[in-house]
Specification:
It is a single chain. Helix 2 packs antiparallel against helix 4 and helix 3 packs antiparallel against helix 9. The chain is an alpha/beta fold and 437 residues long. The longest helix is centred in the last third of the chain and has 28 residues. Strands 1, 2, 3, 4, 5, 6, 7, 8 and 11 form a nine-stranded mixed β-sheet that branches. It has 17 helices and eleven strands.
């Protein structure tokens, strides 16, 4: 059995008051606590994880209405999910449209919206190629520049992205202009902020904040999800915008600065701890260990590097929040660092979305159980609690049960479930004891 402290937890308490929980507003019977939600990015995989986790949280925390929170902030894929919640789409409805591809036609998000080539970008860059070749030749032959220096100008002929955001933006516009919804930040019942990055200045662009709220929500989400290299920068009012995660991972300060009592944060991308992996990755029906990530080649190494960088920024930000906003409780939900399932999944692979969403749902439930005491103590300060019966129901699923593969059956035997439950209880006991110190 893995040690209880072998890896970073998937559900964390970022508040500075773990030892002595404060008496919250709800406990005193005064005004209703103000609660916000911050969602990080991570491509389609990030949205899949967040939807699965939100469904688990929704049914595990009675009274927590994800459509009636005081404020939402989203980055990249998290912006899509946050915009849906702020528009009244429940986590289960988002699961139906994004994961299962069922429900009202206007809400169904097909995989093709992410992977349509940016032919317009290609044509624009190609049109300028003859002039750039002539400029390179002139610099080399006439000005005496080195060959490498002369060829540098040809870099402007390379497309800034492979895929276009237009289909995604059009789909979001259809979703948010249905009756009872809005594509206008100013007409929403609850505050929504979608963060992108201004490419020319490197500054954050908080669409939805005063002065930024005239931009359509669908356009803001498309800009926030414009990951450089995959999607071209998006032009809005003469400025060019790219993925909001370039500046910060969560942008939770947007919520903290408006004086919330509790902020729930979801971060889909975490570095993988192969040294204490709780399970082994199933490949081709066989169970194989992952002793060293270098064996996965360049894609795995780059993935680990990218995840480590963004997660270090997240940890630094949370540490700062403890100091700058000591009266706000923060609950961070993210995958277990020992779990290879989400780490080895392609961030832009939409084909296994149902399997990954179910995994996110079940792993979130498992980790809520493993930190039951600490999470319940924090929620209680805000008039909320955990539904123990729902958490302990082993039959609960996000999606209808399908015929399991042999490898999945091996991982779900009564013995393996008993070992997992024992580990959850030990983890919960360890953290409960830490609260008493």
């Amino acid at each position: 059995m893995p040690r209880a402290d072998a890896a970073a937890p998937s559900v964390g308490l970022a508040s500075g008051r773990l030892a002595k929980p404060r008496i919250g507003l709800a406990t005193r019977g005064s005004a209703r606590p103000k609660i916000g939600l911050a969602l990080a990015g991570g491509g389609p995989l990030g949205a899949i994880y967040e939807i699965g986790a939100l469904c688990a949280l929704e049914e595990s925390v009675p009274g927590l209405d994800f459509n009636a929170l005081d404020a939402y902030v989203g980055v990249s894929a998290g912006g899509f999910v946050a915009a849906g919640l702020a528009n009244g789409l429940t986590p289960r409805q988002l699961c139906a449209s994004f994961i299962e591809n069922r429900g009202p036609r206007a809400d169904i998000v097909q995989p093709t919206v992410f992977f349509q080539l940016a032919w317009g970008e290609f044509a624009q860059r190609l049109a300028g190629l003859p002039g750039q070749i002539a400029q390179a030749a002139w610099g080399y032959a006439v000005k005496g520049q080195s060959l490498l220096t002369s060829l540098e100008c040809l870099g402007r002929a390379l497309p800034t992205g492979l895929f276009t955001q237009a289909p995604l933006q059009a789909q979001l516009q259809r979703m948010f202009t249905q009756p009872g919804r809005s594509d206008d930040f100013r007409r929403l019942r609850h505050k929504l902020v979608i963060v992108a990055t201004d490419l020319d200045s490197g500054e954050s662009a908080p669409f939805g904040q005063p002065g930024w709220d005239h931009v359509p929500i669908s356009q803001a989400v498309a800009a926030s999800a414009a990951l450089p290299g995959l999607f071209p920068p998006l032009a809005i009012n003469g400025r060019w915008y790219v993925d909001g995660a370039l500046k910060k991972t969560l942008h939770a300060r947007v919520l903290l600065d408006i004086g919330l009592d509790l902020v729930l944060c979801l971060n889909p991308l975490v570095p993988f701890d192969a040294t204490h992996a709780a399970r082994h990755r199933v490949l081709g029906g066989a169970i194989k260990p992952i002793p060293h990530l270098v064996l996965g080649g360049l894609p795995v190494v780059l993935s680990q590097t990218f995840r480590s960088l963004i997660h270090s920024r997240l940890e630094l930000g949370l540490s700062g929040y403890r100091i700058s906003h000591p009266d706000t409780d923060i609950l961070l939900f993210e995958p277990d660092h020992r779990d290879p399932e989400l780490f080895l999944a392609n961030s832009f692979d939409y084909s296994q979305r149902q399997q990954l969403a179910e995994h996110a749902y079940q792993s979130t439930r498992a980790h809520l159980r493993s930190q039951r005491s600490a999470i319940a103590a924090t929620l209680a300060q805000h008039g909320l609690g955990l539904d123990d019966a729902a958490l302990d129901d082993v039959q609960r699923r996000l999606l209808p049960k399908r015929r399991a593969s042999r490898s999945a059956t091996l991982r779900s035997t009564p013995a393996s479930r008993a070992v997992q439950r024992l580990e959850e209880v030990l983890n919960d006991l360890q953290r409960a004891l830490a609260l008493q110190r």
